[in-house]
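Page 37, top half.
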Amino acid sequence: MARRKIDPTFSPYTDETAVRTIGTLSIENGTSRIALHGSLDITRDRAGLRQARALKSVLDAIVTALAADDLPEAVAEEGEASETVKNPFA
């Protein structure tokens, strides 16, 4: 697995390696999609406000990037290439 860099500025759809982490929520950048993994508890305190603002900043950047492009109706699904290998136990 490739090591991912944590990018506090997070420029959506520009690379396949940047990850923004807010709490235990990871937002993984990609050139055709952005993946969200984990969870985020936004508490009613200053820490929760910081996390909500960080999440809003990332989502605003994503929306801005999407709105700036002439988008297709849907992104084609990328299938993983498979390779048949000889059974080492046979």
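Page 37, bottom half:
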Amino acid sequence: MKTYPAEPFKIKVVEPCKTMTREERLEVCKKAGYNTFLINSEDTYIDLLTDSGTTAMSDKQWAGMMIGDEAYAGSKNFLHLQEIGREYYGFKHIVPTHQGRGAENLLSRLMIKPGDYVPGNMYFTTTRYHQEANGAAFRDIIIDEAHDSQKDLPFKGNIDLNKLQALIDEVGAEKIPYICLAVTVNLAGGQPVSMANMRAVKELAHKNGIKVFFDATRCVENAYFIKAREEGYANVLVKDILKEMMSYADGCTMSGKKDCLVNIGGFLCMNDDDMYTRARELVVVYEGMPSYGGLAGRDMEAMAIGITESVDEGYIEHRIKQVEYFGDKLIAAGVPVVQPIGGHAVFLDAKLFLPHIPQEKFPAQSLAAHLYIESGVRSMERGIISAGRNIETGENHKPKLELVRLTIPRRVYTYAHMDIVADACIKLYKDRGKIKGLKFTYEPPMLRFFNARFDIAD
């Protein structure tokens, strides 16, 4: 029998969860235009919208915030963050930003010229937006199996080296400023990348004079999967696996709101001295001084401590296994989910869940809305709405994966909460024939999933 580790922490502070009637939730959802992003958190029972910034910080992190040095320049907390960043990630330079998309903005502005191509292992919404806004075209070079939710492979986040070589042959290496390698791959279901694949990508990229930058947002989760699934790493510490992973990149963007275990913050890392000089100049324009980058000193201190806690073997095992426990319950009940279960979330396959709703009527968006109506559980769409439109043709991108993401905040919920959410998903699956599609009543011009509004389709 499979076992799951108990929580490796004690609960010191509690926050009440609000319960509402179905009729009340239906009214809330209608007012929010059937968009879970527009529902207030106080109207949510179990909030699985995102794992970004929703972490429960530790007593040591809260204590660390009391020694925040709020100096405008040269904060001692920045120096601590720099020291920890070098120790655990291995990069020479670190530029703090207010969150991950701040780092994405800096990287895109520093590296991209109009007409460039940025290949990556599946797009992410804000990442692709910054790349396209600076004149690049994104190319998906993830392995084909990543687009099949039912394909069970240990490293579905891997880059297809043949696809990468084909792009180099097609456009020329000079048109590819860097490869964006996500570890793990969010929109593939939180799927990891193998160490062997990272090593091979770096070798091919550097042979052609192309840099490799990681989206390192969930890099510790990726390191755990390498320990659990890749030959030769079972007895290696997660922190050492993480350090080796980073050695195959020229730098990274980081949203500290995930694996750094904080509520706000991020950074851009690199080894190149010239790039660092330019990044220091650019961060002043968009974020703040190079030694705070839009963050308070106390936030940088919490992030430095969070980095050290994130590689604790007991913490990361429980983190991954709690998500796996939730996913296993759904699989056992026949609910279609992305397999294998990823690191930060369980993804419902809305195409298989609601086969009677065509993708043009937004099945994932509708499924997320109806899960909230029936249970008070808030999730989010990761399908055609998130994919957006082609900037040249205006046509909807139609990803093969039409998913609802149930994202587990770190150190927040217990196994009992996972039972409640699983039961809600199973009940909704049994009644799935009653769910109808949606139509736009308001469509924002960019990153539409945040603010779009919908109504029940005819």
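Margin note: The chain has a mean pLDDT of 97.
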